[in-house]
Amino acid sequence: MLHAEPQSLHIQAIEPTLKPQKLYIRTFGCQMNEYDSDKVADLLRESRTLDTTSTPDDADIIVLNTCSVREKASEKVFSDLGRLREIKRDRPHVRIAVGGCVASQEGAAILKRAPWVDVVFGPQTIHRVPAMLAEREAGGQAQVDVSFPEIEKFDHLPPPRKEGSAAFVSIMEGCSKYCSFCVVPYTRGEEFSRPLGDILAEVGALAEAGVLEVTLLGQNVNAWRGELDDGSTADFADLLEWVCDTSGLERVRYTTSHPLEFSQRLIDAYRRLPKLVSQVHLPVQSGSDRILAAMKRGYTTLEYKSIIRRLREARPDVSISSDFIVGFPGETEADFEATMKLIQDVGFDGAFSFLYSPRPGTPAANLSDDVSAAVKSARLKALQAATDAHAASVSASMVGTRQRVLVTGNARKDSDELAARTDNNRVVNFAAPAALIGHFTEVMISEAMAHTLRGQWRAPA
Ligand code: SAM
Ligand code: F3S
Question: Which of 27, 149, 156, 260 has its Cβ near the most Cβ atoms within 10 Å?
Fold first, then answer.
C-alpha cells in the first residue's frame, strides 16, 4: 500500500496570522491536478478571507499540488520545498501545504525531509485541507491525510464557480487500469465514478450561469458508470447524451479516454451529438504490440486503428491526438519503427510524448533495460518531429476555412487582439471587439503559425 491513514506529527508551534491572507498555489502535472487546485482555493475561500498571489514571496499560505507521473516532476517538488524553507525561516507564520501524487506516495515522509511543511494532503482529501490547516493553526501539529475516502471528496466540493464561459467538471476519480509503467492507480486510488445526478446538477448550474463549454475530466472518462433509478447501469455514452441535452451548453469535450473502453456506443454518439467536439485525445503509448502487452495496455495496434477508423466513419472531420512513451524497457529499433508507422497510418493531430521514467512501486520499474539514454533521446526527437509535422499540416489545411470559435479572452502577445479556441482545440488570435469575449463567433483562418492560428473576423452584416 502506498497510501497512509490520517495521522499527525508534532513540529514547532506557529504564530497566528493577520487576515486577509494571501494564497499561492503551484500546480504540477495533469488537468486533474489543475481542477483540484482550483477546488482547494475555493474551499479555503469558504473558511477564510483570501486573496491570491502569483508569487510565494508575499504569500501567507503556500500550496504545492504535486505530480509523480515522471521522476522530473517529482524532483521539482523537493527543490521547491528547499526554497520554501527560507521563506518559512524569514516569515514563520507562513503555512505550507503539499498535496497531489507526490504527497500521496510519500505521506508523512515529506515531513521527515521537509519538517517546515504544515499539511500533507492527497488527491482524495483536498476537501479536508481547510480543517487540517485550522487544526495545525490551533494545535501546533503538522497534519497528514493521504487516505482515499472516495465518495467523500465529491460530496464536500464547493458548488462550481463560473470563471469565463468554459469550465471543467470532474466525473470520476482514480484509475484501475494498472498500466505497468504508471503510478496513478497507487497515488489517486481505484476508479470511482461521480454519481450521475451530481454531474448533471453541476453541468446544469454552470450552463445556467452562462458557461457555454464543459470539459468532462477523469483519468479514464469512458470507464464512467452510473446507477439509474431502475437499477440499470448507464455508461459514458449515456452520460454524454444527457450532458449534451443541457440547454444553454454549446460544446462538450472530455479528457482523457482510454482505448480499452472506447465502445461502439461511444463511437455512435459522434453521429448523434453535434455538441460533442470533433476532437478526441486517445493515448496509445506505443505502436508495437509487444511493448503494448508489456505495458499492460489491454489492446493491440490493430484494435486501436479499428477505433480510429470507426470514429472517422462516424465523424469524418474528427481530429485525434495521443500520448506516447518512448524508451520503455527493452524497446527495440523494430518496436520504435512500429510506433513511427502507426503515427503515419493514423495521422495524429498533436501528441504529448515522454521518455519512459521508471516509477518506484510500478512493475515496469523492475524490468531490465539495455537501450542507451542517447538512443532514447534520438527516438523521442524523431517521434516529435513526425507528430509536429502532422499537426502543422492540419493547421495549414485550416487556412481559408471558417471556424466557429469560443472567445476566451485577450490574446497573450497583443492585448488589443482576442484569443479563441477552435473545435479541435487550437488557439486563434484575431482583431475584434472585446465584447465578444465569452461568446462564440466565426473567424476565417488566415495563417497557420507553429502553435497558434491567425484569423480574420468580420462583423455580421
Ligand atoms: N489515462 C491516460 C491513458 O489512457 O493512458 C493516461 C494518464 S497518465 C497520468 C498521462 C500520461 O503520462 C500517459 O498517457 C503516459 O504517456 C505518461 N506516463 C505515465 N507514466 C509514465 C512514465 N512512467 N514514464 C513516462 N511517461 C509516463
Ligand atoms: Fe496510468 Fe494507465 Fe491509468 S497510464 S492513469 S494506469 S490508464
Answer: 27
